[in-house]
Amino acid sequence: MIKVEIVNGPIGFFPTDDNHRQDGAELTFNGRVRATEHGKNITALEYEKYEGMAQTELKQLAKETVQRFPINDLFCRHRIGRVNVGETSIHVVICSKHRQEGIDAMSWFIAELK
């Protein structure tokens, strides 16, 4: 299953789902705004959403990840608007049979997203 959401405001995390008990790995990645960007101190980042495009592109990237790697599920929430230092800008959960498959998928997904 793939679930992708763009949210305007604080990110609520996806709860652990008992339906995934057959999976050996459930990986979670929370990307936060760090205090420096390109060597300069910052207080926040501003994420913009182009009507329909961000959701479509994020869903396409999620589909490609599921096709490329032997994973069962990918859930992603990405925040738009102002995100202050230390706040979560992206939350991703990947469920897979084995941990390495999930780790590889997560690394690829995040690298492609950036």
- Supply Rg: 15 Å
H/I helix tally: 2
The CATH homology group name: Molybdopterin biosynthesis MoaE subunit
The helix/strand series, from N terminus to C terminus, equals EEEEEHEEH
Please describe what this structure looks like:
With 114 residues, the chain is α+β, with helices and mostly antiparallel strands. It has one domain: Molybdopterin biosynthesis MoaE subunit (Aldehyde Oxidoreductase, domain 3, Alpha-Beta Complex). It has 2 helices and 7 strands; from the N terminus they run βββββαββα.
What descriptors fit this protein?
globular, Mopterin_biosynth_MoaE, alpha+beta, two-stranded antiparallel ribbon, 7 strands, MoaE_sf
Concise summary:
With 114 residues, the chain is an alpha+beta fold. The protein has a single domain (2-11, 22-113), classed as Molybdopterin biosynthesis MoaE subunit (Aldehyde Oxidoreductase, domain 3), CATH 3.90.1170.40.
